[in-house]
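User: Sequence recovery, please. Input:
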C-alpha cells in the first residue's frame, strides 16, 4: 500500500494532531473528525481550556521565540499553539508560531541535526523539530527537512552506523538513542519520536518530490529495521513456526529498552521486564507508522494490554512519573489507531476522548498551565513542557480541525 501524500498526512494528523501515516483507508476515514465528538458542554469547556492553555504558553515565550531556549521544547509548544483552537488569539498566535519556527531554524546544524550548539540530546531534538516543521508545512523548509531525515536515518543503529556498526543479532538493532556522547543505547522513547518525524516526512523520499529514486528504498529499509527494534522491546513471544503470542510472562506491552524497563525495580535477563503505559502506547503508534495492520498479532497484543490497563489518573506501571507524557502518547496512539471507544475486560465501553478531556480539565491550573505536581521526573516540573503535552492531548480529545483563520 502506498504511503500517504503530505496533504493527506497533515489531514490525518490534525484530526489527530501530530501523526497518522501508513493507516488503511478505513482508519484514515475514521480519523477525519469534526466538531461534536465530545458532548456539547464538555466540548465548550475543552475549547475554553485550550484557549487558556494557549494564552499561558504565549505568555511564557522568550524574546528569541523559544520556550526554555530549547529547540525541542519550542517545537512542542509550537505544535500545541499551531493547532490550538483559540479565536481570541488568532493573529497573535500565528505570530508566536512563526517566531518559534524561526528559533527552530536558527538551530539547524550543517549535518542536518536540529539542536543546541552543544548537541545535547541531538536525535531527540532533531526528531521533534523535524515533525514540527512537517506539520507547519512551509515550502521553504523542505531542504532542511530532507537533511534532517537523512541525519535521523543515519542515526539508526545498524551495520552502516558511522560510530557503532552492529549486526542484526543485536537486540538494539534498528533503534535510535539520544545521540549524545557515550555508548550507543537506543531506546523506544527516542525511537518513537524519530519514527513520528520520518512518518510525517516520508513523502519527501517518494515520487515526485524525491531527488534520488534510491531514497524510497532507503526509507523502506529504515522502517524494516525499526520493526526489528520494536519487536525487541515488546513483551511478546515468537514460536518456532514464527507466530507471535502473548504468554504468562509476556503480556504484549512495551518496555524502554531490550534490557531495561523504567517500570522494573531490577533490570536484566533474570527478571521479566514489566510493560508500562508510555512505552506501550509509543510502541503501538510506532507499529502503525510502520504500516502493521490492526489484525497483526503484535498490534493486537499491544491493544489488549491497553484494554487491560486502561486508566487516565496515572501512567500505568509508573504511577505519577511521566504522567503527562503518558497522556500525550495515549492520545496519539488511540487517534492513529482509529477507534473512539474501547472495551475493557469487565465489559465496560470507554469513550477515551471524553475520559481524556475530563481528566485534563480536572488537572489544569488556574493560570491555564498544566504541571505534574506529584513527580518532576523527565522535566514534568516545567509548565512549558507539560502544558504543551496537555494541549496536544486535549486537542486530540476534541477531535476537530482548527479553522485556518480563527
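Assistant: Recovered sequence (406 residues):
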Amino acid at each position: 500500500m502506498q504511503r500517504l501524500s503530505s496533504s493527506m498526512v497533515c489531514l490525518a494528523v490534525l484530526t489527530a494532531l501530530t501523526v497518522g501515516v501508513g493507516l488503511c483507508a478505513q482508519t484514515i476515514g475514521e480519523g477525519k473528525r469534526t466538531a461534536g465528538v465530545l458532548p456539547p458542554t464538555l466540548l465548550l469547556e475543552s475549547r475554553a481550556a485550550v484557549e487558556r492553555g494557549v494564552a499561558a504558553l504565549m505568555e511564557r515565550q522568550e524574546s528569541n521565540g523559544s520556550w526554555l531556549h530549547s529547540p525541542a521544547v519550542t517545537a512542542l509548544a509550537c505544535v500545541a499553539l499551531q493547532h490550538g483552537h483559540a479565536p481570541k488569539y488568532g493573529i497573535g498566535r500565528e505570530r508566536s508560531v512563526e517566531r518559534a519556527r524561526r528559533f527552530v531554524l536558527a538551530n539547524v546544524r550543517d549535518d542536518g541535526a536540529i539542536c543546541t550548539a552543544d548537541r545535547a540530546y541531538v536525535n531527540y531534538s532533531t526528531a521533534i523539530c523535524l515533525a514540527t516543521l512537517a506539520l507547519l508545512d512551509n515550502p521553504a523548509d523542505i531542504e532542511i527537512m530532507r537533511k534532517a531525515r537523512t541525519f535521523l536515518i543515519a542515526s539508526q543503529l545498524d551495520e552502516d552506523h558511522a560510530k557503532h556498526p552492529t549486526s542484526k543479532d543485536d537486540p538494539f538493532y534498528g533503534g535510535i538513542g539520544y545521540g549524545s556522547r557515550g555508548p550507543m543505547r537506543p531506546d523506544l522513547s527516542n525511537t518513537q519520536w524519530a519514527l513520528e518525524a520520518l512518518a510525517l516526512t516520508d513523502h519527501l523520499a517518494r515520487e515526485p518530490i524525491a531527488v534520488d529514486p534510491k531514497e524510497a528504498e532507503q526509507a523502506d529499509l529504515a522502517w524494516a529495521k525499526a520493526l526489528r527494534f520494536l519487536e525487541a522491546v515488546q513483551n511478546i513471544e515468537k514460536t518456532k513456526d514464527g507466530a507471535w503470542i502473548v504468554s504468562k510472562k509476556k503480556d504484549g506491552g512495551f518496555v524502554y529498552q531490550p534490557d531495561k524497563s523504567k517500570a522494573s525495580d531490577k533490570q536484566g535477563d533474570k527478571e521479566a521486564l514489566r510493560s508500562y503505559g508510555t512505552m506501550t502506547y509509543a510502541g503501538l503508534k510506532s507499529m502503525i507508522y510502520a504500516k502493521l495492520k490492526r489484525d497483526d498479532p503484535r498490534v493486537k497484543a499491544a491493544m489488549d494490554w491497553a484494554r487491560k490497563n486502561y486508566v487516565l489518573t496515572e501512567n500505568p506501571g509508573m504511577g505519577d512519573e511521566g504522567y503527562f507524557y503518558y497522556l500525550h502518547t495515549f492520545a496519539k496512539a488511540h487517534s492513529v489507531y482509529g477507534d473512539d471507544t474501547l472495551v475493557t475486560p469487565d465489559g465496560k465501553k470507554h469513550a477515551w476522548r471524553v475520559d481524556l478531556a475530563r481528566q485534563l480539565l480536572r488537572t489544569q491550573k488556574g493560570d491555564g498551565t498544566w504541571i505534574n505536581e506529584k513527580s518532576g521526573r523527565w522535566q514534568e516540573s516545567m509548565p512549558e513542557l507539560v502544558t504543551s503535552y496537555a494541549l496536544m492531548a486535549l486537542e486530540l480529545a476534541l477531535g476537530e480541525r482548527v479553522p485556518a483563520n480563527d
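The chain has one domain: 6-398.
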